[in-house]
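dumping these here so i dont lose them again. two proteins, back to back, each one seq then structure tokens. dont judge the mess
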Amino acid sequence: MRRPPVVSDAVKRGLTPLHRRQSSQLLPRTRMGGPMPWIIAIMVALVVLAAGGALALGTLADSARGELAGAATVQIVEADPQTRAVQVRRAVAALSADPAVVSVRAVPEEEIEALLQPWLGDLETGGVSAVPVPALIDIQLTEAAGDAELARLSGLLESAAPDARLNAQSDWLGPVFGAIASIQWLALILALMLAFTGVTAVWLAARNALAANAKTIEVVHLLGGDDHQIARVVQRAMRTEAVLGSAAGFVIGAAALLFLGSQFAALDSGLVAGGGIGWSGWVILALIPLLGAFVALLTARLTVLYLLRKIA
């Protein structure tokens, strides 16, 4: 038995919009007027900030390691100035003759006193001069200063300068590198928490959309529409919000990173100046809004399919 023409035409007219762009009009289109785009924008901006900070800290640590690779410092800890000066000359001579040492530089006393002056006071008041200051010798090795190489050089200095202490300069920044690694892990955890929060927000929005349009969805089912078609309708309605929110969040996060970068660059500090985000880092950051929009659309689709199966 054939379906009456009037009913057949009505079914066709009802199902046709589900295959067109106009199908998204079955659900309210809030665009930037609703909360969802702003929620996505805030989440993406915070993730960009966290990821950008982690990348900048990684660049800073790599730069510091590169500058300090193979660098070591010899301290001559001797209170008597004359004995200290003799040991400095002997240590410089012994290190200069070693093939593993590229350069040797005895740091002048005036330079050491200038470094300590902000903490120990002015020379004229007897601040620095009243405190015995060890002599310093900066050396550069042919390769990174390992424990075995440092032990060998320390043995070489024992006879020339008994009061000499040899340390790799990278050891002094070991706690700093550890703190940087901890901050990077915290940034990763923060990004994952923000991603989970964003997924939860999209899930709630999709659930509310189904609840608010239950009558419309029931009519679509009566007209022959299946769950996947309804999911596509919700996905189309969410697409504009997800794309606009992700793009706005990236712009906000990138602008904040550029502003903070200019502020740190103005400090003109040797350690801070080594930080920054290279082109590869910006490429990684540019993937965040794309990933955010994709996750939002996928979450909306899976949520709708799950709830429709549960209702059925």
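---- next one ----
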Amino acid sequence: MTQSIIVIGAGLAGLSAATALKNANCHLTMLEAAPQAGGKVKSWISEKDDTYIEEGAQFINTDMTQMVKLATSAGLSIVQTGSKPDGISIAAPEQAPISDELFDHEDELDDIVITRKEEDIPLSSLYNRLDITKDEQQLISSMYGELINVNPQLVSAAGFLSIHKRFASMQDDTTHQVAGPLSHLVGHLLKQLPTVHFSEPARSIFSDEKGVTVQTDKQEYQADGVVIAVPPAVASKLTYSSNLVSHFKQALDSYINGSIIKITWEYETPFWEELKGRDEVIHMAEATFTTPQGISVQDTSARGINNRLTMFIGADLAEELATKKEDDVVRIAEEWLKEAVGERAFTYSRRHVSTWVNDPLCGGGYGAAVRYGSMIAPYELLREPYARTVFASSELTKEFAHHMEGALRAGKYAATSLLSFLKKKG
């Protein structure tokens, strides 16, 4: 018998789930609150030339096989990130190289195990368990403030460690990128799927032995099962039947949205390959700010295609700046950029700002973090079907959490798990 499934959300997780369900010959209904698909995968494309800038997610590595496969099937290639290899990481505004030993301390995280809520601590306290100096703690705190996009005092150390342990690669996560707009990958997936009901947010989900009912502002949809493919902190705002509340609500409420502001500058030449550092000329690949914390600048060039620097402003600082006018944010950010790379910071030919703070449809930041004081492994519960319902997002995946690869894998896993669940139900 053909199963009817509703997929809520047309980001990468939802599109991946829908693709798997279509391949299983299911009857699909897709609902998306925004007027377009993609979620945090969003490309700005110039109307004048072929220039594009990724407003949200951007990077992959070659171990992210589902993303590589998707890009290839869409007719796009993979290129390396960075104007050229062998750049180094520096601390800003000091412009001092960051020692490899500091990054080696991340290996200590593999030895830290938190299995019970009573053992959990705030992420900010986790640094004290690492064999590093106070200055190194400040640097790592800034790194994680940008990477997690949430104040480390609010983040569960257990939740953070789970992200670290679910990164199934020995490579850095930014080594490569797609040589073309990521929105083309979204369009490639959409072409293979039924029509999506855009600008139609789900409001409530009701589930019983007979099936599921999803209510939107426009109408009511019924099906055998539902995949809720939106970030958990966003999904927590929906209304659920009592059985779903008792099973899922605590896990959904365990997440807190991240916050990130992403500013990209394009240049004629990659001058950061020859920066005058404290003691020598250096090739900067990345700068992490110690003051203020939660800021990094990266060489995000698509090698051989463009020359770009991108500033990522995370957590509390992003929330503060999001209340200001964009011109004011840029003025402040460019002063920080000057501290990292010098006066040539102002010689850019193009600039683009994107803000992911408290977005009602996509959440914020790179993803939602597990809140300290909540469940320590909510992702384990949310990604498994119950009462004809399952959740899918990059936060919940078994591998590559908080990455596009993780979203694709989460969607496929949710679809196959739900179909198996429904088959057992008969």
